[in-house]
Amino acid sequence: TWTMLNIVEEQVDRIREQVGEKGRAICALSGGVDSAVAAAIVQRAIGDRLTCVYVDHGMMRKGETEQVRRDFEEVFDALDVVDAEAQFLGALEGVRDPEEKRKIIGREFIRTFEAAEVRVFGSLAPEERGDTAYLVQGTLYPDVVESGGGAGTSTIKSHHNVGGLPEDLQFELVEPLRTLFKDEVRAVGEQLGLPSTMVWRQPFPGPGLGIRIIGEVTRQRLDILREADAIAREELTRAGLDRDIWQFPVVLLADVRSVGVQGDGRTYGHPVVLRPVTSEDAMTADWARLPYDLLERISTRITNEVAEVNRVTVDITSKPPGTIEWE
Ligand code: XMP
């Protein structure tokens, strides 16, 4: 629409003014809509002086990194996909505590990002580089309000996707979405012609499946959860309910086993929890009343197709008192 076009044009002008003729910017793409739209606007303003970095920490969903790569390569000229699975999973070895997991994941994000920053800015001669390094963030209006309006141009807002960036990373922030709400960001994304998988992606936490495995995060457990999660998402999409559901976490109770029977054998496998929720803004949420036949298809397929899972449960807790994620 006219308004969305206006927003884009206005931001493009502002960014050109801020970054100047030579300035270079870096943007950490999470795979989500906010960082994608922010980066797309900045690219309009400064072209290939923007470098996008996407970190695959090994805890993404099935096929997700490939999807993100396909979508992003279509949109962004300079895209740096970092394979950091071994680094992240190595750092998480033996860790079971949720906050400890988040801290470690945040720290590894920073390390990966610092290395990317050196690659992008470090190799340039000072006269090519400009005096300031710019960092693009997809901060929305509700984030600004929540953090007391404090995120100025010289400080780094602790962004929950990357777990907060260290003080000594000297960046100036570029935040083209600071006045927008989520639905407006989606409208801008459509206006910019971004792929609909990007624009309509449901929120997904930065730590990824790492906080949906209750217990230690291992490659094997991630593979089990990826299969179960892929089935649930596929059936939700097939039922045409993607846009009615805010998020649909699938959680693996990796430290729990329950007895089952399959064929003529007793099994001792893991339960998974389906956690479909409806929400306006993730501050509060309600458990989604998915149709029984859909739940049945998901349950049957998961227990048939994922050998290690022999029980499927549904979480019927609203937020509050529950949170959307289990960790
Ligand atoms: P909860 O579980 O607190 O989650 O109801 C609210 C929203 O935030 C997402 N979430 C996270 N996002 N890093 C993120 O980037 C995190 O550590 C994190 N924890 C929760 C969650 O998926 C939901 O959308």
How would you concisely characterize the structure shown here?
The protein is α/β, with parallel strands linked by helices.
Protein described:
- With 327 residues, the chain is of the alpha/beta class.
- It folds into 2 domains: 2-199, HUPs (Rossmann fold, 3-Layer(aba) Sandwich), CATH 3.40.50; 212-314, 2-Layer Sandwich (GMP Synthetase, Chain A, domain 3).
- It contains 11 helices and 11 strands.
- It has helices spanning 2-19, 33-46, 64-75, 85-92, 98-122, 126-129, 141-146, 182-191, 196-199, 219-238, 292-305; strands at residues 24-29, 50-56, 79-83, 133-136, 171-174, 250-252, 258-262, 265-274, 277-278, 286-287, 309-314.
- The protein is globular, with a radius of gyration of 21 Å.
- The protein starts with a helix and ends in a 13-residue tail after the last strand.
- It binds xanthosine-5'-monophosphate (XMP).
**Count of DSSP H/I helices:** 11
Would you list the SSEs in sequence order as H and E? Answer: HEHEHEHHHEHEHHHEEEEEHE
Q: Largest beta sheet, briefly? A: 5 strands, parallel
List how many beta strands DSSP finds. 11
Domain count: 2
SSE map:
Elements: H1 2-19, E1 24-29, H2 33-46, E2 50-56, H3 64-75, E3 79-83, H4 85-92, H5 98-122, H6 126-129, E4 133-136, H7 141-146, E5 171-174, H8 182-191, H9 196-199, H10 219-238, E6 250-252, E7 258-262, E8 265-274, E9 277-278, E10 286-287, H11 292-305, E11 309-314
Parallel strand pairs: 1-2, 1-4, 2-3, 4-5, 8-11
Antiparallel strand pairs: 6-8, 7-8, 9-10
Helix pairs in contact: 1-2, 1-8, 2-8, 4-5, 10-11
The protein binds xanthosine-5'-monophosphate (XMP).
Xanthosine-5'-monophosphate is lined by residues 102, 160-161, 203, 205-207, 247, 282, 319, 323-325.
